[in-house]
Amino acid sequence: MASSSSSMETRIPDGDHLALELTVRDLDSPASDKAASSADEIIPLLIQNQRPRFNIFSSQTRRKSREQVFKVTETEILPVTQFSSWIWSESRYSGLLCMALSSTLYFIMELVSNTFSVEPIPLFETAFLRCTMISILSYLWLKRIGQPVFGPAHARKLLVSRALVGYLSLFCFIFSIQMLPLFQAIVLSFVNPVMASIAARVFLHEKLKITDIGGLACSFFGVLFIFGPTLTVQVGSEGNSENLKGNHHIYAVLLGLVSSITGGISYCLIKAAAKASEHPVITVFAFGSVACPTAAICMFSLESFVLPGFETLISMIVLGLLAFCAEVLLARGLQLEKISKATNVLYIEVVLSQLWILWTGKATSPSLFSRLVGSLFILVSVSYTIYMGPAKDTE
Fold first, then answer.
1. What is the pTM of this model?
2. Which of 32, 133, 192, 244 gives a 20 to 30 Å CA spacing to 221?
3. Which pLDDT band holds residue 32 (cuts at 50, 70, 90)?
4. Is 245 or 172 the better-scoring residue by pLDDT?
5. Residue 68: exposed, middle, or buried by beta-carbon count in 10 A (0-12, 13-18, 19+)?
């Protein structure tokens, strides 16, 4: 009967890893055969089926489990993160998409303001709360991603200029909307894209093509078609009224024009500051940090403070959140895209507003045709801008 013996050998190879092997040997085999068949007779128990050797110091098992957890988590959030990153930076149309989403959020703000407005709140008080929320949210965003709150040193002059010019535009717009009829103030506010394109040609040396000029003109004519009949009625009623802001009408119009001009320059400063600071949220925080205290001063010195009720406060908070998202997307879109193309997409807000009025049946029959024609003008212009795609000469 053949006898066999087993022995345990401990080997310490390079790397100070401990490996334990169990070998089986036949004692009755000749000595000459032992040397020839030693390679076949040594059967390490830990490498059966050609499995790789591992030891207690290896982290391969834990690494695999962690990778599996990460893969499961990535699979769960992949659609949301992929869509967000595609809109933010991965798409060729990211700049235009950000502007379209920003314009849509402004339209949602208009709906929320008209639907849930319980009590009238002074405009500077509304601006103060909105700018406060913008400042807080942008500060938290920058802290979370590790960006400098006040931006890099070489971009601070642009950031301060953007904040000051932006608040000057807001200040003039608030006064003009208080002194002018609502639709006249709205028309003047939509001069911003035209002024921004002119300012971009002067300050940023962006090329204005015939298609860009035609697109902006088509969109603005669409706005005039929509609000033209309303403006005519309001001007006629103002002419028959002796004390309806008649003496201050010209000053209100000038303030509206100043708001549009400074708003266009502010768009250029947003683009320049966002490129210099390499993050658009920094420009949003710069505006909020300047607009918040100045709006507070105007609120207490020019208006009487009104304590909002609970429902009104909730609607104001919701509007602040929407305004923050809209401002961030606006800054990102201006950072990525040529200003004449990006600002033309902002006219989507007018189309969405008119479609909502038509769907709810609030449009009167005399103005129905002009609303449809004006919306068609804007849709053709914006669709052509998106169809042509981003500007090839954008840096």
1. 0.77
2. 244
3. very low
4. 172
5. exposed
